[in-house]
Design brief:
This protein is mainly alpha-helical. 69% of the residues lie in helices and 6% in strands.
């Protein structure tokens, strides 16, 4: 039943306008981000206020490797893994300095990391123009598999499918894959090690858990999901700029995790959907 609803949902929403399908697509991106942050905050108990930096890394990797900015138009199977790998590297780079930090101190350092990444993206336009600074990178290539272009409407089997509808199914598929990975991780030895660190790090270390490696793995795994979401965001939006990766976005994703219940995967999904879709519903009702 749920599968049928998810399959026909974009066509139902399309009757009210394509903007609602776009809203749903962004909601799925937030679900990916919330699930990634849930690994760090919910499973491992590490408060991260700079998570949006990994979202930015994934988006800018796609924008730089698949746009006229550098004259590169690489296929998705090269660009997306590159964004995921670089986001994971940044996750480890963030993890090393904060291994001994907890609570408010950890939150402040991760907050600073997120702001540093945003400021770098905003200023790396001189002396060598890498990110095009505050103007951002436009004309970013859409997701494409062979001749099947996700950003372009076309007719399949007599049914007209728009770009947002194509992206919906792509995002839904990747979201379900991420959910599956998160469930498997939660019930694995690594997941239990994360939960042990969350409950009592000293006791976990006494039981033989390598807390350093397990924490770094949490940061890296969470960052990879942020990199995936960032790359898909850039391909769907066709434009990236530093304003899309502010501290407010990090706090919003953290609120989604807290609202749904930290460490509870279905709750995190519901929290992400509520905080991303409900404001748009209110806006449509209140604003004539």
């Amino acid at each position: 039943m749920i599968g049928v609803v998810l399959a026909i949902l974009p066509f139902v929403l399309g009757m009210a306008g394509q903007s609602w399908i776009r809203t749903l697509n962004f909601a799925l991106l937030y679900v990916m981000l919330a699930l990634g942050l849930n690994i760090v905050v919910g499973f491992a108990g590490l408060l991260d206020l700079g998570y949006i930096a990994f979202y930015a890394v994934g988006a800018y990797v796609w924008a730089m490797l698949a746009s006229p900015h550098f004259g590169l138009h690489l296929p998705f199977w090269m660009v997306l893994p590159a964004g995921i790998a670089l986001a994971a590297v940044f996750g480890v780079l963030l993890g090393f300095p904060v291994l001994r930090l907890r609570g408010d101190y950890l939150a402040i350092v991760t907050l600073g990391f997120g702001e540093i990444i945003r400021i770098f993206m905003n200023n790396l336009d001189a002396p060598v123009n890498i990110t095009n600074g505050p103007q951002g990178i436009n004309r970013v290539d859409t997701f494409k598999i062979g001749d099947f272009i996700f950003g372009k409407a076309e007719t399949l089997f007599g049914i007209r499918i728009t770009g947002p509808e194509k992206y919906y199914y792509l995002l839904l598929l990747i979201t379900l894959l991420i959910v599956f990975i998160c469930v498997r991780l939660q019930h694995s030895r690594i997941g239990r090690a994360w939960e042990a660190i969350r409950e009592d790090e000293i006791a976990a270390k006494a039981m033989g858990i390598n807390t350093r490696n397990v924490k770094l793995l949490a940061f890296a795994m969470g960052a990879t999901f942020g990199g995936v979401a960032g790359g898909l965001f850039a391909s769907m939006q066709g434009f990236v700029s530093p304003e899309s990766f502010s501290l407010t976005e990090s706090i919003s994703v953290l609120c989604m995790v807290v609202l749904g219940g930290m460490g509870h995967i279905p709750g995190v999904i519901v929290g992400a959907l509520l905080l991303s879709v409900f404001p748009e519903l209110l806006r449509s009702v209140v604003v004539p």
